[in-house]
Every structure is written in structure tokens, then in C-alpha cells.
Amino acid sequence: MSQSSPQHFIVIGNPIAHSKSPEIHQQFAKQAQLQIRYNRQYCPDDAASFIDVVEAFFNGGGVGANVTVPFKQVAYQLCAERGQLSTHAQVAGAVNTLMLKEGKIYGDNTDGQGLVNHLLSLGWPLQGAKVAILGAGGASRGVALPLIEAGIKQLTIANRTVEKAQALVQQLGTASPIIDSIQPTYCALEQLEGDFDIIINATSIGLSGDMLPLKDSLNCHYAYDMMYGRELPFLTHFSDKGAEVSPGYGMLIGQAALSFKLWTGTSVDLNALNEAQ
Ligand code: ATR
Predict the structure, then answer these.
(1) Which residue, among 256, 254, 257, 252, has the nearest Cα to 268 in the 3D structure?
(2) Do residues 151 and 174 touch, judged by C-beta distance below 8 A?
(3) Alpha carbon of 109 to those of 26, 141, 142, 237: distances in Å?
(4) Which end of the chain is less crowded, N or C, counting CB atoms within 10 A of the terminal residue's CB?
(5) Measuring CA to CA, how many Å separate 203 from each of 22, 64, 70, 243, 257?
(6) pLDDT by residue (tens digit) across 24-44?
(7) Catalytic residue among 30, 72, 104, 261
(8) Angle formed by the axes of helices 21-32 and 249-264, to 10°?
(9) Residue 212: which pLDDT band, with cuts at 50, 70 and 90?
(10) How far is the CA of 161 from the centre of ligand 1 (A)?
(11) Residues with Cβ < 8 Å from 133, sequence gap 6 or more?
(12) 36-42: strand order across its sheet
């Protein structure tokens, strides 16, 4: 398929120079035989500047925008006040994908489903699984609903500050009826123990290279860190205990593929993409 003028996309963040999204989306576009422009968009770290950038982009004919740190909550507020939100974005309290729907700004969140798709592509069993998520910030909040939709049967949220885990479990209970079906529990990070099928590290500790204070009696078959790009002590810890482990780069690709589908209507074949590399 050929196009006269390429559709325009951006990823908005601060910092943004390191973002791999332009390369990832250009690969998707190549596979879909679409011509696109996808640029990194720096934005000063304040809500007013973010709104100016978004308005200028869509007024100028832009088709879709990804939103990354630190603007996911600001994007959520913008859509809540002036447009619409998907259920996943509502539950996550954060938006990573923006587009126009009937002339209004629409926000979705593809991070959690991107994680689920990556776990499934790794062959990790989610149906009936006992899962623990470490961390109670935005990353943790964004993955809870998609994991429950994927059929897990038990969810525990463990956090250094236990009150935040408690608040998150309470908020989730009111956010979507499906979450009620499994009644998530919470505890302090250093109290978490026992055997889990999957443990997901959604804390930001991987950025520092430090290890979480975990009990020796905590075990799992599969350990996933949402971070990537450096050695992650969390993964080394569980790999040494015999678990299968994965960093989060596949989640990045997964969320990008879902954004691309929302914007262009085209599904990306991630297996074909891997083979092409
Ligand atoms: P994000 O939006 O990426 O989730 P966040 O909202 O700042 O970022 O949350 C970071 C998470 O990592 C929190 O759960 C935080 O624990 P606290 O709520 O107790 O602050 C967790 N975290 C960060 N550094 C940590 C560390 N050194 N040890 C344990 N947990 C840590």
C-alpha cells in the first residue's frame, strides 16, 4: 500500500533522547507497508507545557502520540477533563497512548496488555496462576487489570510502604467489577513469602542496580522485571533459585504494537519481526 503523505506520530517525554519508540514503530510500519513519521518530542516538565504540546500536535494533523515518564498521569487528567478514557487507562490512572476520537482527545493504556502479551509469548501460564506484583506505583497499577483479565486466580501486591499497597488494593476493588472476582491482597515487601507461579517486579529499584529486601522463603517458577537494559539483581536472584526469568524489553515492544494497532488498525506480527532481526 502506498500513501501520498505519511501519518505523523510522536512520543512525548522528559528525558526523551533515549526512547526506542521511533525505531520500534518504524519497524512496525515497514511490516505494515505504511509510511509514517515518528519523532521524539521533548516537553518541559509541567502540565501546561504538556497540554500545549498535545494540542499543537493534534491541531497540526498528528494521528497518535505515546506518552512516557513523567507525563502519564498528566495525560490521564487531560483526557478525564476534556475527552475520553479507555477502561484500562481509568484503572491504571495513567495514559500512554493518545489519539483523536470524534474530534476529542482519547487516552488508552497499553502497558499492562503489552506485558500480558509478552508473558504469553514467553509461554508463561497465566490461566489460574498465583501472582505477586512488587511495587505499588503507576507501573504496578497499570498491570493489575490486564493480568486479572488474562485469568490469574490470586494476586498479591507487596510494597516497601505497605500503606500504598493497601490503598492500591482498595482502589482496584472499586475500579472494575472484574477485579472483585479475585480479591487481591497486600503486604509489606519484606513480609512476602511462599510459592508463587509468577513474581513481577514493578518497582523502580532496577534503575539503581540495588536488590530488594526479599525473604529467602519467597519462591517462584517465573520472575519478570519490567525494567530492561542493564543487569537486574532481582532477575539474578530468582534465576539462581531456578526460576525462568525475563527483563521487560518485550513488554515495551508489546505495548508499542497495541498502540500501533489503535492508531492504524493494523496488527503487528511480532514473531515475524523477531525473525527479521
Ligand atoms: P512507577 O510509576 O514507575 O511505578 P513510582 O510511582 O515512583 O514509579 O513507584 C515506584 C515503586 O518502586 C514504589 O512502589 C516504590 O516503593 P514505595 O512506595 O515504598 O516508595 C518502589 N521502590 C523504589 N525504590 C525502592 C527500593 N529501593 N526498595 C523498595 N521499593 C522501592
Answers:
(1) 257
(2) no
(3) 21, 11, 8, 30
(4) C
(5) 26, 28, 15, 19, 24
(6) 999 999 999 999 999 999 999
(7) 72
(8) 50
(9) very high
(10) 9
(11) 140, 143, 144, 147, 155, 156, 157, 158, 199, 200, 202
(12) 36-42, 7-13, 64-67, 97-101, 104-108, 84-85
**90-to-11, 81, 96, 142, 263 alpha-carbon distances in Å:** 21, 12, 12, 9, 19
Q: Rounded to an integer, what distance in angstroms lies between the CA atom of residue 91 and that of residue 29?
A: 30
Nearest-CA neighbor of 11 among 22, 26, 27? 22
Ligand 1 centroid from CA 110, angstroms: 21
DSSP three-state, residue 40 = strand
Which pLDDT belongs to residue 277? 52
Beta strands of the chain (E only): which ranges? 7-13, 36-42, 64-67, 84-85, 97-101, 104-108, 130-134, 154-159, 185-188, 194-201, 218-225, 244-246
Q: Is 72 a catalytic residue?
A: yes
Ligand 1 midpoint to CA 137 (Å)? 6
Ligand 1 test: best mutation among 71, 141, 160, 228, most atoms within 8 Å of CB? 160
Pairwise pLDDT comparison (179 vs 229), residue with the higher score: 229
Tell me, using a 6 A CB cutoff, whether residue 161 lines ligand 1. Answer: yes
**Strand ranges (E), 160-259:** 185-188, 194-201, 218-225, 244-246
pTM of the full structure: 0.92
Q: Is the CB of 125 under 6 A from ligand 1?
A: no
CA dist., res. 180 & res. 173, Å (int): 6
